[in-house]
Amino acid sequence: MTTVLPRIGRRRVLVAGALAVTALPLASACTPEPAPEQADPLEALLSRARTDIALAKATATTHQGLAAQAGAVAGDRQQHAEALRKEIDRVRPARLSTSASGAPTGDPAPPPVVGQQTAALTALREAMAAAEKEATGLVAGLPTYRAGLVGSVAACCASLREVLA
């Protein structure tokens, strides 16, 4: 026994295609507007890293006795800023054109370097403690691949505090 399949003619295919073409724009008009872009949680860490770099460089310039320690802080925080910027740009490539330069955009000015060396050292230690605390607070809410980056930033800030001790 042979089964006869219904024939689909060219006209039916053309009609179905025309209906699909006209229905597609109507269906997309009914979809809600996308939610406004939320700030990336790593932006705050990037801003803090840039502020810490400026503070460390100013401390190294002002206090020659702290130049080596402050230089280590500035170098490590520069690497953090670069890694955070790369991750932010990877997640949101549309923003690459506005932020690829890596230049600070509206970041707060670093706190003024204190005149006494011990006070400047304390300011650097406090900056590293604040950066560590902020990074540690973000780790739990991030996807695993981002949590690893932020966790390493927090760990490095903790080790930099020990360098400054």
Keywords:
mainly alpha; 165 residues
How would you portray this structure in words?
The chain is mainly α. 69% of the residues lie in helices and 0% in strands. It has six helices and no strands. It has helices at 10-29, 41-62, 67-91, 96-99, 117-139, 144-163. α2 (41-62) packs antiparallel against α3, α2 runs antiparallel to α5 and α5 (117-139) packs antiparallel against α6 (144-163). The protein starts with 9 loop residues before the first helix and ends with a helix.
Termini Cα gap: 91 Å
Helix content: 55-70%
Quick one: overall form?
rod-shaped
Q: For the CA atoms, what is the radius of gyration?
A: 27 Å
Number of strands: 0
The largest sheet, given as strand count, sense and whether it forms a barrel, is: none
Topology, element by element:
Elements: H1 10-29, H2 41-62, H3 67-91, H4 96-99, H5 117-139, H6 144-163
Summarize the model shown.
The chain has 165 residues and is mainly α. The protein contains six helices and no strands. The radius of gyration is 27 Å and the shape is rod-shaped.
